[in-house]
Amino acid sequence: MRYSAIRLDKAWPRKAFTLVELLVVIAIIGILIALLLPAVQAAREAARRSQCSNKLKQLGLALHNYHDAHGAFPSGTLSANPTNYYTSDWCKTRPASDSRAPWTVLILPFIEQTALHDQFDFKAQFTSTSNMPGSATNHALFQQANPNYQCPSDINARSNNNNICYFGVQGGGDTPNCYTQAQRVFFINGVLFHNSEITFRDITDGSSNVFAIGETKYCLTKGGRSDGIVAGWASAAKLDAHGTPLVLAAAMLQINSYPYHGGQADTLDWSTRLFGSFHPGGCQFLVADGAVRFVSDTIDLATYRQLAVRNDALPTGGFAQ
C-alpha cells in the first residue's frame, strides 16, 4: 500500500512553471517583440508616406486646375506691386503692407476649400510671420491649422499648429537671384516664385523633369524660437531687410542637410535653401506633370539643382529613388 501511494504521488502532473521556465518564456516574448517592432514601425511609416504622397498629388491636381482656370500656375507669393527682378535688392525693399496671398491660399478652391478661400481679404495685407500680422481677418485665418498642408510623418503636424510641410519650388542652383542676410534666398528659375506667372509653355525642360512642390520639415513652428514667432501655411512673403519667401524654398543645399526641424530650432535662415522630411532617406517632390517622386538625400547635388530649374536645358539623368 505504501509503495502504491508513492507511485501515484510521483505520477501526479505538475500544475505550475518553474521560475527558470517563466524567465525563458518572457525572454522569448521579448525577442519576438524586438524583431517585430521595426517591421510594425516600417509598415506604419509606409502608410504615412503613402498618405503624404496622396496629399502632394492633390496639390498637383489643384495646380493643374488652377492653370486651366487662370492660364498660368499661381504665383508662389504675391505682393501688391510688380517686381523688377533686374534690381539686386528687389526682395528686401518692400513695406509689409505690400504682402499678399501665397500659392497655398490661391489654390484653396481647387482642394475643396472654397469657403475658406472666400474668407480671406485679398486686397489687404497678409500675415508673414506671427510678429508681422496682416489684416485682422487674414491674421486670424493664418493662425488656423490646415491638414491639407501637413504630412502625417511630420511630428509638428498637429491640429494646434498652423505649420506647412510642402513648399513651392522657386528654383535651384548655387546663386540666388536675390537674398537677405545671405541665407534667406529668392530664386526665379523655378515654377513657383515671388510674383511668378509660369505656364506649361515656360517649362521648356519638360513638365516631367521639373519640381513644382517639395516636402519640408523646416517651417518655423511652435517650439522653434523662445519668443514664440512662427510661420505657417498661409504666410505671405516677407520683403524687408530680413525678408524670406516663407512658403517657398530652393534646391540649393542637399536634402535634409540641416539636422534640425522647425519645432526645435529657428529655421528662418535655413528653410528657403533646402527641402527635407521625416521620411527616412529623403523626401517627396511633386513634379510639374503631377507625378510624385521620392528623391534620396544622397542624390547628386548638381542633378538635384537642375531638377528645380524649369528652363536650363541640361540633362538630369532621371530621378534617384
What this model shows, in words?
By secondary structure, this protein is α+β, with helices and mostly antiparallel strands. 26% of the residues lie in helices and 12% in strands. The chain contains 6 helices and 9 strands; from the N terminus they run ααββαααβββββββα. The chain has helices at residues 2-11, 19-70, 103-106, 114-117, 136-142, 301-307; strands at residues 77-79, 99-102, 166-172, 178-180, 184-186, 211-215, 248-251, 282-287, 292-296. The strands form 3 sheets. The protein has a 5-stranded mixed β-sheet. A two-stranded antiparallel sheet has the order 1-2. It has a two-stranded antiparallel ribbon with strand order 4-5. β4 and β5 form a beta hairpin. The chain starts with a helix and ends in a 14-residue tail after the last helix. The model has no long low-confidence stretch (mean pLDDT 90).
Task: Looking at this protein, list some descriptive labels.
321 residues; globular; 6 helices; five-stranded mixed β-sheet; two-stranded antiparallel sheet; alpha+beta; 26% helix; single chain
Strand content: 5-15%
Order of helices and strands, N to C?
A: HHEEHHHEEEEEEEH
Which structural category fits the helices and strands? alpha+beta
Cross-sheet strand order for the largest sheet = 7-3-6-8-9
Average pLDDT taken over every residue: 90
What is the CA-atom radius of gyration, in angstroms? 26 Å
Query: How many helical elements?
Result: 6
Which stretches are low in confidence, meaning pLDDT under 50 for 5 or more residues running?
A: none
Distance between the termini: 81 Å
Helix percentage: 25-40%
Total DSSP E strands:
9
